[in-house]
Specification:
heterodimer; A: mainly alpha; 0% strand; B: 839 residues; alpha/beta; eight-stranded mixed beta barrel
Chain lengths: 116, 839
């Protein structure tokens, strides 16, 4: 995996590897697992469409935890901002939501790019 | 292995993987992707899981629900829960901690911090477990200690129980270098304390006793064996038994209860430490029993003689069954005599043991042992059968008219465990005996416990027709209750009352009172244990003629007794009592006769006269007490021998009257003057209306109504004096007097002539005066008129007339007449004084 690409995008690579007790292979395998698993993003988009906000909040919450632990910092930051809105049941900030979706997709693509 | 696993609960595969990576070196890992799965794993592996790492936001069951479910389960609630959540708010953290999470970590987490916090949580849990376990073990140890204490000690006194005492003393005696003693002590009549007061008081006495004992024997091992039996093992040095007894006696009676507590001490001086302590305690008990059997001291030191007693009792128990099978028990009869005729009137059947080698064994050596081990019921049934069989054979041979009643003994245990009425009825039926010839003797001590059973059993026996005798009357403390509550026909009175120690000299009075009481209750009395001539004489003098005892005869083997009976003949006991009041109802406080007696408007008394003419007052009513002006000390009245207050002539009058009514149903009135009596009044004259109410052997009872006639008698006496004076004056004046009783038309004339006095009684005097040649014809008219006026008109006056008083011719006399009137003014007497007119 191309560590530089990840660092360039803003991944906190070393911190995340440290979280995996220095196990770089595990870390990278988890990144791959994250990038291949569309369940979470699909849940977010469908619940956003159907205005199933509890499911939406839970899914965003999960993304927050995973992105934080995996050191995907740009995604983690926007997820936190979105979560802050949603925690107080404010679902009107469409731009922020769109930016989140965009950032999520971008993060996936960066991981995939780094794996080449 | 326990506590080797960490359960990671998170719906995110990524998060689970990271955490697994962190902990896999130190722990086994279990993973759950939702709350439901987590609970399932927890339940299945509760003992293995050291901690749970728990996400909050999860499908199916979230983290909060898991925490709450775990809190409900005893097995799961102690497992440390570390919540790891991406939620940034303090709210989530607070809620998690509130419902039972141990710690809270935010995602993204620092692996070192997660590790440390998890390890900390596990350590705290382990420490807590250790503390809990320690506390549990301590509690268990305390409990064991407490159980051990309770198992070894007596609850009431805190002293060792008997088993512990024996164990400890056994070990202790192996180590001693000086002489020791075992002292066993008990309270006589402890049961009475419990009965009289309450069990609490009984316990208090025991506690006090234990306290005294602990203080007195400081260097000792002590125990309460059971009930009021206490034990102590103590060095013999400096022990003064007499002082010990004195000290205990003084201190136990410091208790503020109205009961004299008597302690008995049995002492065993240990001469051989190798014998079991239990045996030493038994020997100390034998020493106590020695005191109870009549030894005059409060302590006794065990000696070898007592030991042989113990061996005997074991021998008795071992041989009793065989002895019954081999018919070694024999029935002896002790005859009962009528002391007035010296003839046999009955007999008591007694058991004797004739052992082929040991010979005749005294009942004192086996009866108490049989009573203790219950064998007595078998022996009793055996004796009943043998006695009945003998009576049957005797009647068959010599006829029913020659038969005497036989008494058989019923033991306390028989009353408790046998259906006596059925068994005894069957025996009587089997041998075709008249039921009144087969008598039942029960001991009074049976009544002191289980009295309901005793009452029921005796009621059944009585209903069946048996004559019931009360053995050993007066030996227990409930004698009078027995008399009141049990259908007793005969009292057997033991002579111990008048033999042995009788420092106060009351024995005789007690015996005679019991006999008299029995007579009133219509009960026969048989005196038993009569061994001395003076006992027999005494009994005779107080009206008890049925005697059983060595003085007349020892218990005899059947053949000897049969021979004696044939020679001696049989006296049918005659009832010597004759009550005019049916069933002694006079002594029933509710009987009509009593009510009449007590509320009778006049004075009344019941008294007794014995063969030596002693008069004793038995009952007086209140009116009599008032009449005698006795307010207090009425008891003194009962002690007076009233005959001693009479003059000899009045005694004779009284005796005549008593003799006249005795043995009859008539009544007699007699007036007596008592010259000295326990009242403020100096003397008193009473009119007694006497009637006999009962005739008893050597004494009779009388009822009397009493009228105070002192005033009337005094008046009569005064009149007598006046009469004498009047006569004397008449004599001096040498004249005549005429006293006319107007109401009865009787004249009393007294004429003196030459120093002689002639008296006349003249009926219908007015007519007679006129008819007779006493008044000269010239004067008859005026005398008649004057007397008539004095009678009818209450006129007193004077008249001269020629009278022929001495048949010596008419002489001139002066007649002075005076009328006496009653309170209504009617003339009832005219007194005339006649004197000669000298020319």
């Amino acid at each position: 995996m191309n560590k530089t690409k990840l660092l360039d995008y803003g991944f906190k690579y070393d911190e995340a590897v440290n979280r995996c007790v220095g196990n770089e292979a595990l870390y990278e395998s988890l990144l791959v697992h994250f990038s291949n698993n569309n369940d979470c993003i699909n849940t977010i988009m469908s619940s956003y469409e159907t205005k199933d906000y509890q499911t939406l909040k839970d899914a965003i919450h999960e993304v927050k935890g995973i992105s934080g632990n995996l050191g995907i910092y740009p995604l983690f930051e926007i997820t936190c901002a979105l979560m802050d809105e949603y925690r107080v049941d404010n679902f009107s900030n469409v731009d922020l939501y769109n930016s989140f979706i965009e950032e999520y997709k971008h993060s996936i693509s960066v991981i995939k790019e780094a794996c080449k | 292995m326990d506590n080797d696993t960490i359960l990671i609960v998170d719906d995110s595969f990524v998060n689970r993987q990271i955490l697994t990576e962190i902990f896999k070196e130190k722990f086994n890992i279990m993973e759950a992707s939702d709350g439901e799965m987590a609970l399932k794993l927890l339940t299945e592996n509760s003992s293995r899981i050291a901690a749970i790492l728990l996400d909050i936001v999860m499908p199916k069951l979230n983290g909060y629900d898991v925490i709450q479910e775990m809190a409900k389960s005893k097995e799961l609630r102690e497992i440390p829960i570390i919540v790891i959540s991406a939620s940034g708010g303090a709210e989530t953290e607070m809620k998690s901690l509130n419902i039972g999470a141990t710690d809270f970590i935010y995602k993204p987490f620092n692996p070192q911090i997660v590790t440390q916090r998890v390890l900390n949580a596990i350590s705290r849990k382990q420490l807590k477990d250790v503390l809990i376990e320690k506390a549990r073990l301590e509690e268990k140890a305390n409990l064991i200690e407490q159980h051990k204490y309770e198992a070894e000690h007596d609850k009431i006194t805190g002293l060792y129980n008997f088993q512990t005492f024996c164990n400890i003393t056994n070990e202790y005696l192996k180590t001693i270098k000086e002489s020791h003693v075992i002292i066993r002590y008990e309270i006589t009549n402890f049961k009475v304390i419990n009965d009289l007061f309450a069990y609490k008081v009984g316990d208090m006495v025991l506690q006090k006793l234990a306290k005294i004992s602990k203080e007195y024997f400081s260097d000792s091992i002590q125990s309460r064996v059971y009930a009021d039996h206490l034990l102590v093992c103590v060095p013999k040095r400096n022990l003064n038994y007499k002082k010990m007894v004195e000290c205990f006696k003084e201190r136990i009676n410091e208790l503020d209860i109205p009961f004299n507590i008597v302690l008995l001490f049995g002492i065993y001086e240990i001469d051989d430490v190798s014998i079991p302590v239990e045996l030493m305690c038994d020997r100390a008990l034998l020493a106590i029993n020695k005191i109870k059997s009549g030894y005059q001291s409060n302590y006794y030191i065990y000696d070898q003689n007592l030991r042989s007693m113990l061996i005997d009792s074991q021998w008795v128990a071992n041989n009793m069954l065989k002895a019954l099978e081999n018919e070694e028990f024999e029935v002896f009869f002790q005859p009962q005599f009528d002391s007035t005729t010296n003839m046999i009137i009955g007999a008591e059947a007694l058991a004797r043991w004739r052992h082929p080698e040991k010979g005749l064994i005294s009942p004192a050596n086996f009866i108490p042992i049989f009573e203790q081990n219950g064998f007595i019921t078998k022996l009793d049934e055996y004796v009943w059968d043998k006695a009945a069989k003998w009576l049957h054979e005797y009647i068959s041979k010599y006829g029913i008219e020659k038969a005497i009643p036989i008494s058989v003994n019923i033991s306390r245990i028989d009353i408790l465990y046998l259906d006596l009425a059925t068994i005894l009825k069957n025996i009587v039926k089997k041998y075709n005996l008249p039921i009144d010839l087969f008598r039942i003797e029960i001991t009074e001590s049976a009544y002191s416990t289980e009295y309901e059973t005793v009452v029921n059993q005796l009621a059944d026996l009585k209903k069946a027709g048996f004559v019931i005798e009360m053995d050993d009357f007066g030996s227990a403390y409930s004698s009078l209750n027995c008399l009141k509550n049990l259908p007793i026909d005969i009292i057997k009175l033991d002579m111990k009352f008048i033999s042995g120690d009788d420092a106060l000299g009351r024995g005789g009075t007690i015996v005679s009172s019991i006999i008299r009481m029995a007579q009133w209750l219509n009960l026969d009395v048989i005196a038993e244990g009569v061994e001395k001539e003076e006992h027999a004489s005494f009994l005779n003098s107080v009206g008890c003629f049925s005697i059983q005892g060595y003085l007349y005869s020892y218990p005899l083997p059947i053949n000897d007794f049969t021979d004696l009976l044939k020679q001696n003949g049989i006296a049918k006991k005659q009832s010597t009592q004759n009550y005019f009041f049916k069933d002694s109802e006079f002594w029933n406080t509710n009987a009509l006769s009593s009510i009449i007696f007590n509320s009778y408007v006049g004075s009344a008394a019941v008294f007794e006269i014995d063969s030596e003419n002693h008069v004793e007052i038995l009952r007086v009513n209140q009116v009599l007490l008032d009449m005698l002006d006795i307010k207090k000390n009425t008891i003194d009245l009962y002690k007076i021998n009233f005959l001693s207050l009479l003059s000899p002539s009045e005694i004779s009058i009284a005796k005549q009257a008593i003799n006249k009514i005795t043995g009859t149903n008539i009544q007699e009135t007699v007036t007596l003057r008592f010259n000295r009596i326990i009242t403020k009044r100096k003397d008193i004259c009473v009119k007694l209306t006497l009637k006999q109410i009962a005739s008893l052997p050597k004494r009779n009872l009388y009822y009397t109504l009493i009228e105070d006639v002192t005033e009337k008698t005094n008046l009569e006496n005064r009149l007598l004096v006046e009469d004498e004076k009047y006569n004397m004056i008449l004599e001096t004046l040498n004249v005549a007097a005429l006293d006319l009783d107007v109401k009865n038309d009787i004249g009393y004339a007294v004429i003196f002539h030459d120093g002689k006095k002639d008296s006349f009684v003249i009926n219908n005097y007015l007519k007679k005066f006129m008819d007779r040649n006493t008044i000269h014809d010239d004067d008859k008219g005026k005398v008649y008129l004057d007397l008539k006026r004095s009678i009818e008109d209450n006129i007193s006056g004077n008249i001269d007339a020629k009278l022929n008083l001495n048949n010596q011719g008419f002489e001139k006399n002066s007649i002075k007449y005076r009328s006496l009137t009653d309170k209504d003014g009617n003339v009832f007497r005219v007194i005339c004084g006649i004197s000669k007119i000298n020319d």
